[in-house]
């Protein structure tokens, strides 16, 4: 090991090199003729497998083809108007690439001498390229996330046909929500947790007079239209929407609502009729509750005894089981 520059001079004087044994010290290099060396490019051969998606005769008719991204894991091959996507498939052994030498004496029997060998193969399959969707709105929140730049669809050309994503209604589900048959305000997709029965909408006073409270389920709700709300003298709801009432609230509204009967009407005995209530005459008249009172009644109803609340929940569950919010399809038709 060198300790100082004097040791280096001593090693050179003794004919030893700084690199150790086997190295020779020269004062200068000889001139190298660069023309003596030839540049050799590395060549790698691959075989391409197009499968059965392209006919051999159609391949012979095409005089031009284009390879894109051959040095990438997913190269593309364009032959005519067809586009193929390739995938590198490593081979265990080597494949021999043969040449073609035609014999003038016997042109039907050419010779195929071996030229190269390779252990790389590219397996191509036909795809369909679609352009990137153009969005007029530049807001990134409105851009769909399921549109890639290049869509690679199913196999093109001959091959197994893929089943369509569209299915008939009978194959998707054999149950239809009852809300779609009763003309509700919006279609209900599925049945989320806590969904009640279909609501009843009362838009006319005649429907309110003829409403049968006994046939109303515990879990059902009734919506009063704007005309009925104005006729009852109730304050209008927010944004002009319908007013939703439960069974207990509906009972209070019906009890305190007098039916509008003309004073000129007569009964069976020819006597002039009188103004009566929707309920029996024995039912005492009550003032019409305001919207704030209705909300207070609803909060009072929600804060009742736990045992009574559990009983009402059990009754609601029984009502749902007896009258589910769907209908069974029999032979492709809805029951009457």
From TrEMBL:
Source species, domain of life: Eukaryota
Basic and acidic residues: compositionally biased ranges: 292-302
Basic residues bias spans: 188-197
Single biological process term from Gene Ontology: transcription by RNA polymerase III
GO cellular component terms, A-Z: transcription factor TFIIIC complex
Annotated region (Disordered), positions in chain: 134-197, 259-310
Biased composition (Polar residues): 134-143, 260-282
Every Transcription factor TFIIIC triple barrel domain range: 39-129
Alphabetized Pfam families for the sequence: TFIIIC_sub6 (PF10419)
PANTHER family for the chain: GENERAL TRANSCRIPTION FACTOR 3C POLYPEPTIDE 6, TRANSCRIPTION INITIATION FACTOR IIIC TFIIIC , POLYPEPTIDE 6-RELATED
Protein name: Transcription factor TFIIIC triple barrel domain-containing protein
Organism this protein belongs to: Kwoniella dendrophila CBS 6074
Lineage, broadest ranks: Eukaryota, Fungi, Dikarya, Basidiomycota, Agaricomycotina
């Amino acid at each position: 090991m060198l300790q100082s520059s004097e040791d280096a001079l001593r090693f050179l004087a003794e004919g030893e090199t700084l690199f150790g044994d086997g190295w020779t010290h020269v004062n200068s290099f000889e001139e190298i003729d660069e023309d003596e060396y030839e540049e050799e490019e590395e060549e790698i051969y691959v075989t391409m497998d197009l499968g059965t998606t392209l006919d051999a005769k159609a391949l012979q008719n095409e005089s031009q083809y284009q390879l894109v991204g051959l040095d990438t894991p997913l190269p593309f091959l364009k032959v005519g108007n067809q586009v193929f996507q390739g995938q590198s498939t490593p081979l265990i052994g080597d494949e021999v690439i043969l040449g073609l030498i035609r014999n003038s004496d016997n042109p039907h029997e050419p010779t195929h001498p071996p030229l190269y060998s390779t252990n790389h193969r590219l397996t191509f399959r036909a795809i369909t390229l679609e352009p990137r969707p153009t969005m007029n709105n530049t807001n990134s929140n409105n851009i769909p996330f399921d549109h890639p730049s290049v869509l690679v669809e199913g196999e093109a050309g001959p091959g197994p046909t893929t089943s369509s994503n569209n299915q008939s209604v009978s194959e998707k589900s054999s149950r239809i929500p009852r809300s779609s048959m009763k003309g509700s305000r919006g279609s209900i997709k599925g049945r989320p947790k806590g969904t009640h029965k279909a609501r009843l909408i009362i838009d006319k006073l005649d429907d309110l007079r003829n409403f049968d409270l006994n046939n109303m389920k515990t879990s059902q709700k009734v919506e009063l239209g704007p005309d009925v709300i104005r006729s009852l003298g109730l304050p209008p709801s927010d944004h002009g929407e319908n007013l939703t009432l439960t069974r207990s609230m509906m009972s209070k509204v019906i009890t305190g609502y007098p039916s509008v009967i003309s004073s000129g009407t007569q009964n069976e005995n020819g006597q002039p009729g009188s103004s009566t209530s929707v309920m029996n005459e024995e039912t005492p008249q009550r003032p019409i509750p305001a919207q704030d009172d209705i909300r207070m009644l609803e909060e009072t109803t929600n804060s009742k005894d736990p045992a009574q609340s559990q009983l009402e929940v059990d009754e609601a569950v029984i009502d749902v089981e007896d009258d589910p919010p769907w209908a069974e399809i029999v032979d492709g038709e809805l029951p009457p």
